[in-house]
Amino acid sequence: MSDSVDGSDWTGDGRHDGPKAEGTIESYESEERIVLYDSENPSAWMETTQSIQLEEFV
């Protein structure tokens, strides 16, 4: 990633090689919402009022 105007300090090919969170995603439901979060990094979360099957979009 680069934050320079012309991208001259760009490194890498733009791919994210960070850790995979697929096995650490958990969720809980309340009366009005569903919350998805990474159990290894609980500050990484999403909240929604609707759910969809991810297979429909993958």
Please tell me about this protein's structure.
The protein is mainly β and about 60 residues long. It has a domain at about 20-50. It is about 0% helix and about 30% strand. It contains no helices and three strands. It has strands spanning about 25-30, 35-40, 40-50. Strand 2 (about 35-40) and strand 3 form a beta hairpin. The two termini are about 25 Å apart.
Mean pLDDT: 71
Identify low-pLDDT runs: none
Number of strands: 3
Radius of gyration: 17 Å
Most strands sheet: 3 strands, antiparallel
Helix count equals 0
Give the termini distance in whole angstroms.
26 Å
Strand order of the largest sheet: 1-2-3
How does the helix and strand content classify structurally? mainly beta
What quaternary form is this?
A: single chain
SSE arrangement, N to C: EEE
DSSP helix fraction: under 10%
What fraction of the residues are assigned to beta strands by DSSP? Answer: 25-35%
- Which term fits the overall shape? extended
List the defining traits of the structure above.
mainly beta; 58 residues; extended; 3 strands
